[in-house]
Amino acid sequence: MLTPKKISRRRFLLSGVAVAGAMVVGWGVMPPRQRVRGTAALPLENGAVALNGWIAIAPDGSVQLAMPRAEMGQGVHTALSMLVAEELDVALDAITLIQAPADKIYANLAVMRETLPFHPDDTGRTRAFASWMLGKVAREMGVVITGGSSSVKDAWTSMREAGATARAMLVAQAALDWKVPAEQVRAENGVLYHDISKKSLGYGAIAARAALGQPGKVTLKDPHSFRLIGTSVGRRDSRIKSEGTATYGIDVRPEGMVYAAVRMSPVVGGKIAGITPTEVVKMPGVLAVVDFSNAIEEHYGAGAGVAVVARSFWQAKQAAAALPIRWDEGANAKLSSEAIYASLSNALETDDGDNYHQRGDMAHAASALRTVKSLYRVPYLAHACMEPINCTAQVKDGKVTVWVGTQAPTFARRAAARVGGVSEANVILHEHLLGGGFGRRLEMDMVAQAVAIAREAKGLPVQVIWTREDDTTHDVYRPAALARMTAGLDAAGNIIAWEAKTAGGALTHQFTKRNLGMPGAGPDRSTAEGVYDMQYEIPNQSINHVVVDGPVALGNWRSVGHSQNAFFKESFVDEMASAAGKDPVEFRRTMLLNHPRHLAVLEAAVTKAGQAPEGRAHGVALHQSFGTIVAQVAEVSVQDKQIHVHRVVCAIDCGIAVNPNIIAQQVESAVVYGLSAALGGEITIKDGKVVQSNFADYPVLRMNEVPMVETVIVLSAEPPEGVGEPATPPIAPAVANAVFALTGQRLRSLPLRLA
């Protein structure tokens, strides 16, 4: 049974004020702690010495950079290396990456600040103060995480400061050795020069002495002097991935490793009533049968289950499939998608929800010449990462060792310690490349399972691997949601009032409970983001969301709440344009008069797209998420009621473009990911079970279905914003709007299907 959760916006705001008021006394007025010098030792190699918590230099001049962010195909290891190489004045290929140790200086402050529920147009002191305070809180919490399209945004200052500080220390030491003013020493490509005396010295020759000194004056480069930032440097991980030598979590092979296959409750929230392992333990290679339910089910998403440990994964998988299990299906045995949507619909009608944004006076809606009201719907979505869910763990001699690809090493250590019964200091975490993250590997179910199973493996390392079916049926899903959109037009065809009300689960409530042990409370920004903070200049607005709790596990899906709310908003804008008898692009232009950056992005997209060929139509969508503005034009045809997307033009303003090549790659990736969901993604529930199980019934785009994607980067001098996710939200409404232009059918549900 799904139930609405009623917590007023007033309670939410007052609780925030109370927290801020408590913090502002003493600690709150102090400057945030620095993020350059760490307390944990770096895992150095080849005689390198650390100049700060991020950077070490070896005698041969090579640079070792502590990397706290996960590489999951988004190019972050290249982009962040560029920031350091720029300020340190070394060649990019001089930098090698080492795993960052557990230290609070690597905390992701930007991703925490993104949770603040302010409108992008709000640039007042309250927002600045709240951002300041939350940044300080995040620094003290020390949560190391990769997500929210925040890696470059967060590193823009901290990693550049680390590079500039290291450079200043080298310059200061050279000036001391040469007995010249530091202003006369310049750094270039890993070498220090004193042009007057013609002296020069490589970084490696001076690093050990420089590490003992002070940096003196530290100055970040002016963007006009960048030589590396802003260039299309090739990805540093391309070669190893192309050659097949890259090491993902699933590739690790510690000595003595055995394998585990899992069986988890087929019904949401079900439990194990009994296991009969007698015959299974006699099967070839089988070492143990482990019920891990009690160790993890209340804290992590996958819930109750049992594992079979064997010498090979095939042996483990075969034995797990043959294991007789009696399931207690519990209260959700009759849960269905129909019942879930009925609960959401009822909540829309009966609950006021939380108000996220109020502008003007909604009484003006009564004066509208024409009112349009529409209901939109989106389903649960799975992540469908290409690398199967996996984790390898060993519990031995009072320590827990974990090998995993994770977006949240802080949570991974915490989960391993909790399930393994040790302190976090006794957790050794080896981080590896991720074969797709998309928010799925922010979760710790795979870590908790692996450690719980390894506890019973007599000191052997155990690699847990989920099948595709395990993953699809036990994911943490993008929430299903309904949206009721209402707007009124005046005699000139302008929107004078806009009301949006949505209903769905609050994924942040679940996420914080699973990973932080904190109960979710208050409005969840992710439920309304992309609607309450929209860019359109509509004088009277009211944006509400009703949180409807349910048993289905919810998680962060690429672009989070923007993924559904952009569909609601941009589809409805097109509806209003049609009702007003106006061109959809011109209709948007008239609502962006005070938003020149948004208008410039829209113009860049439609100009590049040109006119649609005969038999095809263009659909437009404009959306801002993670600080980045994106406009897309989708070129679509329809044949035998099948939607075909041939071309997508995407204009993007993400601030300073650190690496245009990576930006284009991420735009292409985000479009394909979002288009897969728009055309075929749907998780449904029947008799408490997820119906879909593999790519046959949860399809992703095949190569022959992928459109040509053209990226237009709009030049900007603003600091970098998010890139990995912002191109996902606009694609579904752009395609839906193109379908309407072609057929006259308004598709208000995802996935998009013609009647």
TrEMBL record:
GO molecular function, one term: oxidoreductase activity
Swiss-Prot/TrEMBL keywords: Membrane, Transmembrane, Transmembrane helix
Residue ranges annotated for the Aldehyde oxidase/xanthine dehydrogenase a/b hammerhead domain, each copy included: 243-331
Presence of keyword Ribonucleoprotein: no
UniProt cross-references to InterPro entries, sorted A to Z: Ald_Oxase/Xan_DH_a/b, Ald_Oxase/Xan_DH_a/b_sf, AldOxase/xan_DH_MoCoBD1, AldOxase/xan_DH_MoCoBD2, AldOxase/xan_DH_Mopterin-bd_sf, N-heterocyclic_Hydroxylase, OxRdtase_Mopterin-bd_su_IorB, TAT_signal
Residues annotated as transmembrane: 12-30
SUPFAM superfamilies: CO dehydrogenase molybdoprotein N-domain-like, Molybdenum cofactor-binding domain
PANTHER family with a match to the protein in the record: ALDEHYDE DEHYDROGENASE
Listed name of the protein: Molybdopterin-dependent oxidoreductase
Organism: Massilia eburnea
